[in-house]
Amino acid sequence: MTERHARRPELGHAAQLRRVMARYQSLVSEQAGDWEAFIAALQRPLPACIWAHPQRTDVAELQALIIAEEGGELPGLARDPWSPLALRLPVDFKAGQRWWYCAGLAHAQEAASQVPVWLLDVHPGQRVLDLCAAPGGKTAQIALALGNRGTLLANDFARERIAALQGNLDRLGIVNVSTTWGDGGNYPAAAGAFDRILVDAPCSSEGTLRRHRSLAARLDPDTLATNARLHGRQLALLRKAVQLCRAGGRILYSTCTFAPEENECIVAQVLEEQAGRLRLLPARLPGLAGRPGLTAWGGRTLDASLANCLRLWPHHTDTGGFFVAVMEKTPDAPQLEPGDTAVLDAGVDDECWLPALAEHYGWPETIWSGLRVQRQTRRGLHLLAADHEPPAQPSAQGRGLFFHRTNIRPPKLTTAGALLFGAQATRQVMELSQEQRDAYLRRASVTPRPQQWADCRPGQVIVRYRGHPLGVALLTRSRTLESLFPSRWSGCAGRS
Ligand SMILES: C[S@@+](CC[C@H](N)C(=O)[O-])C[C@H]1O[C@@H](n2cnc3c(N)ncnc32)[C@H](O)[C@@H]1O
Question: Of 1, 23, 24, 27, which has the fewest beta carbons less than 10 angstroms from its beta carbon?
Answer without folding.
Answer: 1
